[in-house]
Design a protein that fits this description.
This protein has 198 residues and is α/β, with parallel strands linked by helices. Helix content is 32%, strand content 28%. It has one domain: Vaccinia Virus protein VP39 (Rossmann fold, 3-Layer(aba) Sandwich). It has a 7-stranded mixed β-sheet, with helices on both faces. It has a two-stranded antiparallel ribbon with strand order 6-7.
């Protein structure tokens, strides 16, 4: 199964300017926790960088950040903001092997169809060095579906994610929950997953 949903990609293509200029702040609490687990200057792959606010925070902290996004228009806007190359990268095209100390995937893998998510996590696992750290966040739920903008979400439960991550050789997997919101400004239950490679 494809790892992308055409309607979701279409939404981000059509709304790239609004999405990247809304003044979103970096996710400091989770960024700081993530970065504290990495060596100084560590190499980090960011997936789905959006407007670039999280990469901007990591670059300012001295890390070797490689920001990417699956929508060319959004990657271009992030590159203008950051002043560093931002690659257009679809999740199914991740093919690096043991290259990164960390992978940061804030609020992006939640758009991967459930049937394709294990394959994507396998690619991320392969791209990490031994001891590397992988962070991802998901909108919690019990069944996949779409939001009011027509975007696809996999809406996993904690148990579903535990089973999914358990298919790979992580040294540890931690899942925390938090109330928040998103682009739709609706109250949202979020699941935050941090996994460390053996």
């Amino acid at each position: 199964m494809a790892a992308k949903d055409e309607d979701t990609i279409g939404f981000y293509t059509d709304n790239a300017n609004a999405y990247t200029t809304r003044g979103q702040a970096p996710d400091r609490p989770h960024l700081e926790t993530f970065l504290a687990q990495l060596p100084g200057g560590a190499s980090i792959l960011e997936l789905g960088c959006g407007g670039g606010q999280d990469s901007e925070f990591m670059l300012a902290a001295g890390f070797d950040v490689h920001p990417t996004d699956g929508t060319p228009e959004i990657a271009k806007a992030a590159q203008a903001r950051l002043g560093v190359p931002v690659a257009t990268l679809l999740f199914e095209d991740i093919d690096d092997r043991e290259r990164y100390d960390g992978v940061w995937a804030n609020a992006c893998l939640l758009h991967v169809p459930r049937a394709a998510l294990a394959g994507i996590i396998g690619r991320i696992h392969g791209a990490l060095k031994p001891g590397g750290v992988f962070y991802a966040s998901f909108k919690a739920g019990e069944a996949e579906g779409r939001d009011t903008f027509g975007r696809y979400y996999n809406y996993p439960s904690r148990a579903w994610l535990e089973n999914l991550y358990g298919q790979f050789g992580w040294m540890s997997v931690g899942i925390t929950s938090r109330q928040g919101s998103g682009y739709d400004k609706m109250p949202t239950d979020w699941l935050h997953v941090t996994a460390t490679k053996s």
